[in-house]
Structure of M20/M25/M40 family metallo-hydrolase:
Amino acid sequence: MKQITLGLVLTFALFGNTMMAQEIEKKYSKEVERLTKKKEVGQAFDIIRSQKDQTTQDLITLTEVLAPPFMEDERGKVFAKMLEEAGVDSLWTDKVGNVIGLRKGTSGEPGYVGVDAHLDVVFPEGTDVTVKKVGDTLKAPGIGDDTRGLAMLISMLKAMNKSGIKTEKDLLIVGSVGEEGLGDLRGMKYMFNESGLDIDSWIAIDGGSLGRISNAGLGSKRYKLLIKGKGGHSWGAFGLANPHHALGKAIDIFSKNAWEYTSGDITKTSFNVGRIGGGTSVNSIPFESWMEVDMRAIDPKNLDEIEIIFKESVKKAITAYNASGVRGRVTYELIKIGDRPSGELPASLPLVQRTMAATKFFGETPRLGRGSTNINIPVAKGIPAVCIGRGGQGGGAHSLHEWYLNDEEGDESIQLALLITLAQAGLSK
């Protein structure tokens, strides 16, 4: 895997999670312009427009195969069949469930260029994912995030094959697993840490409108705190150590310490108690209490520091509670349920420059930013990677009323993905 030196990274001006627009070097604008004038590229663009209805049907087909967290297999099979029918040189599903199509290049050079969208959605088993049409608008959970990205990959692959496009470098076209929530980027972690594949750059499709480009990963650490006690009757066992009471103390101490830290002179760092649970009834002392905590930071150092604050706060809270005069004691366990690394790539990197230049070609102002996406893994390793939007209009992501409208920008989003891919992989002469 070809890596850049993380020491080069970076001095961006930040505005929220979006970095200010960066200058595009002329050589990359000219490179993109030359590509768009190639006959086969123009044909591929026309093919993408002509197969819009089929791309929409592919989107519906994929959406209606629910892919809950850790249960992406069925959708993976449908996506694999689409890849096979569109035409790849080889096709396989790896150990963790990533569906991978290889399209061979002509140069024989080592190093793959990967393009992916994620298979999983946030919705649990049993969710109704039937697509409903309201005019030209499609409504269903997961219709945009990120099923639209999968349909884009199929359209792009078909256009390349029908127009006779050949790339210099080998392409990996991937439906990845584990992007959402507790999936913890397990698909990308396997690809870059265990698969043995020599990947030298990555392009992810998982965002909103054209113009948004992620070249930075927002890191996070997530824990489940599990507190246990003997449990008993609220009256008969009154005074017995209560896991819920201990949990409340842990939340209080952590919140105070974390708030003081995040309010200091540091780059944006956040913390959140997202879920709590436990207990059996209102008149029972619970035998178990738990909470799930999410911590995020731009700077990896800050992420490590707030993780330490969390662990120390929990230890202090449990020790203090057990010494408070209660009968018996509670015990606790910290279970790590998420670990996404932070990282940033410089705007001067060729892949980032090519992505900005291609975006500008479609009349959009490129806006660099950060997010928690599949590119967190390669970016943290210094491997060139970007995440681009799926275009069109949409809303309600991660909700039951999610919707997507494939307008003119929808075709351009596929053309953009193709253009970036060709610029990075090289168009074979």
